[in-house]
Amino acid sequence: MKNKVLIRITGEETGDNYLAKSYPDNDYDNDGWGELYAVPVYYIDIINIDTPFVQRRWKCLRFMPYWNDPAAPSLHYKLRKWTVAGLSDARGRFKVTYYDATYGTRNSVSPHRGAIQIQDNFLIHSGPATLQSSGCGGAGCVEIIGNFTAFKEDIKTVSGIGGYLPSDEIIHRLIKAGKLYIEIEAAPKPTITPMSNQFRFKI
Q: DSSP per residue over 103-169, as a string?
């Protein structure tokens, strides 16, 4: 029998910072140098609802600098301005309804596939390999730091489903059974401005 699994996006900061680029445009002043911005890192928990002491904890990026230059915009995104993208309001427990096992990150190269939909275009997917792997960007998705394949395996472990089925299939089965949930804790968006960048890189 499948256990109910909760993914809780916490409002608890880890105390770490990650150097992120703005996305989809990473050169705010168009001088040929990209900017990097310090963003806070948060905890994200995978919890067995039926047996809450069975859980796993990961680190994630929750808010990212977003810059879609109105003068030369990416047509993939409707919003054309500077902002800090991410979901800040609390949202109580709700069922996951969609998982894309083939999803590949657009903002950086990652060997890991898959995206769990939170709502609309906001997803949980692979992020930087380490906190030191600076330069990832994002448009407000929750990005898992580290091995996203292992994150999915932790969902499988917490679900209590044994056997040799791949984690992608387990996630699909949990969703179909109505047993995969997300919960979002409130967190204020960090103050990040185009002038708050700490480092630059040659494009």
A: ---SSS--S---EEEEETTEEEEE--SSTT------SS-EEESS-HHHHHHHHHHHHT--SS--HHH
The answer to whether 18 touches 41, Cβ cutoff 8 Å, is yes
Q: Return d(Cα 175, Cα 173) in angstroms, integer.
A: 5
pLDDT at 1 over 60: no
pLDDT (tens digit per residue) in 132-151: 999 999 999 999 999 999 99
Least confident segment among 37-41, 52-56, 116-120: 52-56
Show the tokens assigned to 85. 């993208």
Counted residue by residue, the chain has a size of 203
Q: Which amino acid is at 44?
A: I
